[in-house]
Amino acid sequence: MSAYDALMAHARETEALKQVLGRLGWDQETVMPSGAAPQRAEEMAALETVLHARKVDPRVSDWLAAAEPADAVAEAQLREIRREHLRATRVPADLAAAIARTTSLAQGIWAEARASDNFTAFAPTLSEVLSLRRREAEALADRGDLYDALLDDYEAGETAASLTAMFDAMRPRLVALREAVLEQGERVSRLDGHFDEAAQLRLATETARAFGYDFDHERIDKAVHPFSSGQGLDSRITTRTDPADPFNCLYSTIHEVGHGCYEQNVKRDFLLTPLGAGVSMGVHESQSRIYENQLGRSRAFTGWLHGRFREAFDGFGVEDPEHFYAIVNAVRPGYIRTEADEVQYNLHILMRFDLERALIGGDLEVADLEAAWNDRFADDFGLQVDRASNGVLQDVHWAVGLFGYFPTYTLGNVYAGCLFKALKQAVPEWEEALARGDATPATGWLREAVQQHGALMTPRAVIEGATGEPISVAPLLDYLEAKFGGLYGL
Fold first, then answer.
1. What distance in Å separates the CA atoms of residue 462 and residue 449, rounded to the nearest whole number?
2. Is position 285 annotated in a ligand binding site?
3. What spatial distance separates the first Cα and last Cα of the chain, rounded to whole Å?
4. How far apart are CA 293 and CA 486, in angstroms?
5. pTM for this entry
6. Binding positions for Zn(2+) (predicted)?
7. 225 is annotated as contributing to ligand binding
8. Rg of the Cα trace of the chain?
9. Domains defined for the chain, CATH in brackets
């Protein structure tokens, strides 16, 4: 067996074990008994220890030195294995296990604190998670920027400085658009009524199929915070229901379907290899956001969805598809990131980006986080946070240690803007098909242009290869100004 073949055999077993660990996480958030949390934490820590040992195995270094790639795919496999090996060798095994154990326990503690709106009850656990992630960042950064070291886990090649420059370029136009829209007042009525949760889930399943979700290899379950999990032949998503707000379920589902389809549509040849997953969270979010927004909130698709709402919910009172389109895309102040309209969504992310950089950098302590969040939210959105579940406890990310993840949402929106511009030119029938409840011409183009490649290319190379243009914030901002300018008569 050649060095390359031996390395790939080792890598495939490692990737299979990662999927087992991911399945434990999925189970914990969906069907695991609440009392099992301490045991599950030990199980996940034990498996993380096994994975860490495989990543730092001295043979990996020897194989990498001796391997001779035969083509571009092999070169990319070596690139990804080398990157993971180098990062793993810098992190002590006991620290990797401690992070897995603590974040597993933290998830349940966060959920309880969120339900009781008690940040104080969660703060000690968050302090422990933050301390562990800081230690990891110090091990990885080699005296460089700690936040950049963590960001590299989610978006290789990006830095806090590069993202700050991008976000600073976006903020003025986003703020100006929001102010112009909100000056128009409450022009759109809200949905009113009780929407059966079982009917929501049935419609969510139908909508997932409309976007090409393959239920032979995927499933939908409920969770406190919607997420996706798994790869290849077993890629799962979750959603949530609210009897007063069916859009929460529908658009959470479409968002997670974007993630699930990305993992489902990577070339089968890459299955259980380092190339067999989405290349970065920014590119991942580009898929979920374009599914959810440019396609799912389009006038064409909401026209179809309006008809399905009238069939699914007795007494649904919105008679006009155009009015329904306006309701789906209404811009109004709110606390919750996942429920935010397209105009304000990125402002939620920019706030989190600044706060988590301060936490990692030591400029903000956990004891002061809730007050800092509330003050910043009042400055950015003009609202006083009324309870912790509408504020600092609304997202699970920090509880499970995902520092550096939040900015990939906005990066994904930027990528989605670039992709949508290219998609409209490449698939002229996209609107006609969506009006029939068929998103697959659009999602099929995304599968071929982006999803099938997995981690074969770098994140920026994937997007620029699909669009034929350099990445820019302009397509996203142009799209938002055109869409909401039209809706609000600007």
1. 8
2. yes
3. 66
4. 16
5. 0.94
6. 255, 259, 285
7. no
8. 22
9. 3-144 (no CATH), 160-487 (1.10.1370.30)
Coil, strand or helix: which one is 45?
Answer: helix
**Is 80 designated active site?**
no
Residues 52, 55, 57, CA angle at the centre, nearest 5°? Answer: 105
Is 323 labeled as ligand-binding?
no
In the chain, the percentage of residues whose pLDDT exceeds 70 is 100
What lies within 8 Å, CB to CB, of 490 at 6+ separation is: 180, 181, 184, 481, 484
Residue 220: phi and psi, rounded to 5, are -120, 130
Hey, what's the torsion of the CAs at 264, 265, 271, 275, to 10 degrees? Answer: -110
196-233 residue pLDDT tens: 999 999 999 999 999 999 999 989 999 888 899 999 99
Please pick, among 80, 256, 342, 370, the residue that the annotation labels catalytic.
256
Q: What is the DSSP string of 139-169?
A: HHHTTS-HHHHHHTTTSTT--HHHHHHHHHH
Kindly report the number of other CB atoms within 10 A of residue 161's CB atom.
Answer: 10
| CA atoms within 13 Å, Cβ hemisphere of 211 | 34
The C-alpha angle with vertex 343 and arms to 210 and 488, in degrees rounded to 5, equals 95
Residues 6+ apart with CB under 8 A from 35: none
Rounded CA-CA distance 208/261 in Å is: 10
| Angle ∠(426,432,436) on CA atoms, nearest 5 | 130
